[in-house]
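Each lists chain and fold; for instance:
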Amino acid sequence: MRSKIRQIAFLALLVTATLGVARADEPAYTVKPGDTLAIAVWKEPDLTGNAYLVRPDGTFTFPLVGQVDARGKGVVELQTLLTERIRKYIADPVVTVSVQEIKGNKIYVIGQVTKPGEFIVNPRVNVMQALSMAGGTTPFASLKDITVLRRAANGQQSALPFHYNDVVHGKDLQQNIDLQAGDIVVVP
């Protein structure tokens, strides 16, 4: 009984320690298909809106500018790009870009979990947090055979093993990786 209480206490400590902690070396959020952007051009109400949807191909359309490729870009890069393109029509434009809705940063948890499905993560979630979001594992889950499926930019898919019991006991913590958009956590 005491070991079970220790496990639960350790898991709670692990989750608490990793939630909401910002790192100085953390990369800026990159815009993903499905995200909605708010874009404002100062003193130009016709060029201000809160519903610029990033299409599945990673682009969106903005007045005067046309199609903008947002793939792999953060809000600062998009502000700079839009400012440069709008400068042809407006002297010294002041452009502000923000992510209104993060819907493109999805991960999936399937298999022997209480609530399998897709989850929008903002901005990062590790494997333990994803399992928690899915309501935890069922009694039938094979905790030593959990796998994270990840597709690289070149289309290659890899399988990353995750041993739940090791992480719960504070061992081999490096396998509790931060998930990336599109990752699938499989709990057999």
Remarks:
- The first helix runs from residue 2 to 18.
- The two ends are 26 Å apart (CA to CA).
